[in-house]
């Protein structure tokens, strides 16, 4: 209980509007966010295409992990797709807390491991599954996003052409 209090008393509530950027390329992400409400998206913009890397929503973390963890400039954007309320914890406060509490250190290690496992699963899915299998897996994992996120972004995340995504959305039941 003392560890929980130690963590929560260091959190600060931040509100963002739809379209607000949390982090942009070249900026170091100085805060880690716990999503209370809303949907956020990490993406890379090139001259010809937008590549969606990840979505975050309650009860997940919201961050550009490598920018926050190593305090280096981000290579991509983190933006709010909907109005969002996030609890923030600065990099310095997190370092102090993990030095003070083995329980908090263990919590953050497990959250980091879960993020890594999710990234590996997506990497495998993009290479080993058909577009229909990827679509169905996404629908099972995050069905609420189908109604909150523009489909072109979900299509990008799944590595599916937007036209094919539209066909899947209209014809495939999960």
From TrEMBL:
CDD domains cross-referenced by the UniProt entry: CAP_ED
Top-level taxon in the UniProt lineage: Bacteria
Boundaries of every Cyclic nucleotide-binding domain copy: 1-106
SUPFAM superfamilies: cAMP-binding domain-like
InterPro entries linked: cNMP-bd_dom, cNMP-bd_dom_sf, RmlC-like_jellyroll
Listed PROSITE patterns: CNMP_BINDING_3 (PS50042)
Protein known as: CRP-like cAMP-binding protein
Taxonomic path: Bacteria, Pseudomonadati, Bacteroidota, Chitinophagia, Chitinophagales
